[in-house]
Amino acid sequence: MSRKYFGTDGVRGLVGTAPITPDFVMRLGYAAGQVLMRAGSELAKPTVLIGKDTRISGYMLEAALEAGFAAAGVDVMLAGPMPTPAVAYLTRALRLTAGVVISASHNPYQDNGIKFFSAQGNKLPDAVELAIEAALEQPMGCVSSDKLGKAKRLDDAAGRYIEFCKSTFPNELDLRGLKIVTDSAHGAAYHIASHVFHELGAEVIAIGNQPNGLNINDGFGATSPAALSKAVQEHKADIGIALDGDADRLLMVDASGRIYNGDELLYVIVKDRMATGPVLGAVGTLMTNMALEVAFGEMGIGFARAKVGDRYVLEALNERGWQLGGEGSGHLLCLDKHTTGDGIVSALQVLSALKRSGKSLAQCTEQLTLYPQTLINVKVAAGFDWQKNAAMVAEKEYVERELGDSGRVLIRASGTEPLIRVMVEAKNAHDAVQMAQRIAKTVQV
């Protein structure tokens, strides 16, 4: 069965436009509540934790979800603004039935979304999402008054999560002597990130920590790391940590202001894990830089590529029984520390690697030279299938023969716009540009 509402990261869209409207979200809460009620026991009423980021629409959608769950007879705990991975952790730690996050991650404030976590802190299985979609097709009802759900606020949510994050950092290490700039993108970690690193001993300067409901991801955070790079240099800090709006994505900056992406940070984490035990393999995506694949091969570490999206990286890790994976965008998964991608926890894994090795980020990555990548977005007509375009297929094959083992070509359709994304990776930047342009020019719209 195909999904009507759920995408790879829950239900997402423009606020005020279907499906991100208060009436639909209330129905979504009711439908999800019905599914949870059917799956639960008669002795214990299901309880759901709801967290959100700092978008102004979060108030409205939180109220709608709460009403829907209550109408289905499900109790609700409200965590307020909390990182997505915090909701996953708290759902598991508090032995709750499910967790719900109201967030559109790195998107601008006009967007919002709803995503669910299971009792184990994982994204919902496909079967459960399909059951919720089926329930959405039925009229909304309401249980009798004596069976309505109740709501209460979880006042110590931030403190609990801060302690969890700190627990993923080695007991024998601390961050004393480090000056760190944290950038929370005016998002869900605005009141959490700086406390984690400060309580581990670092001197912390916080930026991107003044949310007003409209400024999430606006000029700050992992999608706009220039602000962090500037702040690190201005404050003469040792390192900078940039999160996105829901704090599941991470980029880092060294003292010189140089930005390190998810591929480089994954490399640092894997190398550190190898020093303390065997690493069977790591998972990247179709967009992961080829240099990382080559480096892992030289280190004797298995490597697999998943479709773009942390959901698919997680699936590939679980299939293989591996623990480490990620995307260049900064979604990093350390399954020995958390069930989902977590920007703060990932930053702590990088910092522990730096502390253990006594090296800087530049020194830890000096043996990894990323291949230049050129990405061209080509506008196409709706329904365009590049694999049926003979000229494009032929040029792609020709470029691949030219590159041999020294590069890659990736062509994929955008999931949200009428675009074809042409990516060429080569050891030489000029070659990458020229080859990508050649392939892109074969499209006649």
TrEMBL record:
<feature type="binding site">
    <location>
        <position position="248"/>
    </location>
    <ligand>
        <name>Mg(2+)</name>
    </ligand>
</feature>
<dbReference type="Pfam" id="PF00408">
    <property type="entry name" value="PGM_PMM_IV"/>
</dbReference>
<feature type="binding site" description="via phosphate group">
    <location>
        <position position="105"/>
    </location>
    <ligand>
        <name>Mg(2+)</name>
    </ligand>
</feature>
<dbReference type="InterPro" id="IPR006352">
    <property type="entry name" value="GlmM_bact"/>
</dbReference>
<dbReference type="InterPro" id="IPR005845">
    <property type="entry name" value="A-D-PHexomutase_a/b/a-II"/>
</dbReference>
<dbReference type="InterPro" id="IPR016055">
    <property type="entry name" value="A-D-PHexomutase_a/b/a-I/II/III"/>
</dbReference>
<dbReference type="Pfam" id="PF02879">
    <property type="entry name" value="PGM_PMM_II"/>
</dbReference>
<dbReference type="InterPro" id="IPR005844">
    <property type="entry name" value="A-D-PHexomutase_a/b/a-I"/>
</dbReference>
<keyword id="KW-0460">Magnesium</keyword>
<protein>
    <recommendedName>
        <fullName>Phosphoglucosamine mutase</fullName>
        <ecNumber>5.4.2.10</ecNumber>
    </recommendedName>
</protein>
<dbReference type="InterPro" id="IPR005841">
    <property type="entry name" value="Alpha-D-phosphohexomutase_SF"/>
</dbReference>
<feature type="modified residue" description="Phosphoserine">
    <location>
        <position position="105"/>
    </location>
</feature>
<feature type="binding site">
    <location>
        <position position="244"/>
    </location>
    <ligand>
        <name>Mg(2+)</name>
    </ligand>
</feature>
<dbReference type="InterPro" id="IPR016066">
    <property type="entry name" value="A-D-PHexomutase_CS"/>
</dbReference>
<keyword id="KW-0597">Phosphoprotein</keyword>
<dbReference type="Pfam" id="PF02878">
    <property type="entry name" value="PGM_PMM_I"/>
</dbReference>
<dbReference type="InterPro" id="IPR005846">
    <property type="entry name" value="A-D-PHexomutase_a/b/a-III"/>
</dbReference>
<feature type="domain" description="Alpha-D-phosphohexomutase alpha/beta/alpha">
    <location>
        <begin position="3"/>
        <end position="138"/>
    </location>
</feature>
<feature type="domain" description="Alpha-D-phosphohexomutase alpha/beta/alpha">
    <location>
        <begin position="160"/>
        <end position="257"/>
    </location>
</feature>
<feature type="active site" description="Phosphoserine intermediate">
    <location>
        <position position="105"/>
    </location>
</feature>
<keyword id="KW-0479">Metal-binding</keyword>
<dbReference type="Pfam" id="PF02880">
    <property type="entry name" value="PGM_PMM_III"/>
</dbReference>
<dbReference type="GO" id="GO:0008966">
    <property type="term" value="F:phosphoglucosamine mutase activity"/>
</dbReference>
<dbReference type="InterPro" id="IPR050060">
    <property type="entry name" value="Phosphoglucosamine_mutase"/>
</dbReference>
<comment type="function">
    <text>Catalyzes the conversion of glucosamine-6-phosphate to glucosamine-1-phosphate.</text>
</comment>
<feature type="binding site">
    <location>
        <position position="246"/>
    </location>
    <ligand>
        <name>Mg(2+)</name>
    </ligand>
</feature>
<dbReference type="InterPro" id="IPR005843">
    <property type="entry name" value="A-D-PHexomutase_C"/>
</dbReference>
<comment type="similarity">
    <text>Belongs to the phosphohexose mutase family.</text>
</comment>
<keyword id="KW-0413">Isomerase</keyword>
<dbReference type="InterPro" id="IPR036900">
    <property type="entry name" value="A-D-PHexomutase_C_sf"/>
</dbReference>
<feature type="domain" description="Alpha-D-phosphohexomutase C-terminal">
    <location>
        <begin position="375"/>
        <end position="441"/>
    </location>
</feature>
<feature type="domain" description="Alpha-D-phosphohexomutase alpha/beta/alpha">
    <location>
        <begin position="261"/>
        <end position="368"/>
    </location>
</feature>
